Amino acid sequence: MLQTRLCSLPSGSALRRYKPSVPNSSCYTRHYARFNSTQADIQASRVQVELSQTRKPRPDPATLSFGKVFTDHMLTIPWKASSGWGAPQIHPYRPFTLDPSVGVFHYAQCLFEGLKAYRDETGKVTLFRPDMNMKRMNTSAQRIALPAFNADEVIELMKQLIRLDKDWIPNVPGYSLYIRPTMIGCQPAIGISPPGEALLFVICSPVGPYYPDGFKPVALYGTTEYSRAAPGGIGAYKLGANYAPGLVAQKEAAKKGYVQNLWLYGPEHYVTEVGTMNAFAVFKQPDGTIEIATPPLDGMILPGVTRDSVLNIARDHVAGKYKVADLPDKLVVSERQMTMREVKEAAQSGNLVEFFGTGTAAVISPVDRIGYLGEDIHIPTGPDGMGPISRPIWQQLVGIQTGTIEHPWSVVVM
């Protein structure tokens, strides 16, 4: 068992007006300044590698379930307030031994990321926009007083881990290696304070396509009984504490006959997120212009990598930098607030073109129905389950991810 004795530091306004800010109490600033001092940062050159002596059997790709099978190796990097980041280790996948008092168990000192590695038909392995994931991971760490780190060095370490376990990437179209970087507070003491010990680790899991039998539009339940996030809270950060509270809302949506819930905020019922995905609506304007809209990054919305990629692909098309086949020329891209009333009225008037969610696992998830205040709002989808705007954007995005379209977002591993 890996001994992880990884501590001791001294101990609403309306949505439309909200501006996110970083906590600025003297206590927080003092502790975070210590995290960003001249202490040792992560250095990929210090990595220690222990190869697994017992390789696990490779699963049949057809039997894979998301996040249930893991590769032979993992990456761990310990941190201490007194000395900074320790030597990275790549070693066989195995359990941790943690003291029952550590902060991750009691105070949810936990954050994570999710990204994928792809292998093309020539054997080339690539990562999709890992810099975005590492930037968001550092931002999440800052929000809960966990230590910052050198993103480029962690990307290099992830590349080394993937090279070791590259044969876990199924050589089948649509399959990939899901990568889960995580950081937890490991101070063995009960007491709410910034942790003096932490652990950054990375595990990998082979995964198949989210829709193996073709796109299946999902039905959403417009959740007004619960809030996913609030101004000044943690909605914009990928923290473990953001996810467990959403399970009850998801269960209740399922009981009502819906696949997932659509988070609505405030008395105006602002559209925020689709379950754990970013939300997009496509509207037809009176002059025929098509608007693709998503809620703004106002501090309540997670800055999704797929969200950003969809917006950039659409904006490059509008600007003429890179035309995407089948996307209309009269296209407007908006990051703005929208209410369920607007979505409902657009659907009733025939001006709602489509509605979809975006995220790492599914990439794009089309929606065909939203339950809202006792009635269903029906949303058009194409014969393949997708809409006329999401389909070409999805094709462009997946082409970049899998390497069939050359793009700077695709980072070569080997």
TrEMBL record:
It catalyses: L-valine + 2-oxoglutarate = 3-methyl-2-oxobutanoate + L-glutamate; L-isoleucine + 2-oxoglutarate = (S)-3-methyl-2-oxopentanoate + L-glutamate; L-leucine + 2-oxoglutarate = 4-methyl-2-oxopentanoate + L-glutamate. Gene3D superfamilies: 3.30.470.10, D-amino Acid Aminotransferase, subunit A, domain 2. Its EC number is 2.6.1.42. One of its GO terms (biological process) is L-leucine biosynthetic process. Its cofactor is pyridoxal 5'-phosphate. It comes from the Eukaryota. Keywords: Amino-acid biosynthesis, Aminotransferase, Branched-chain amino acid biosynthesis, Pyridoxal phosphate, Transferase. This is Branched-chain-amino-acid aminotransferase.
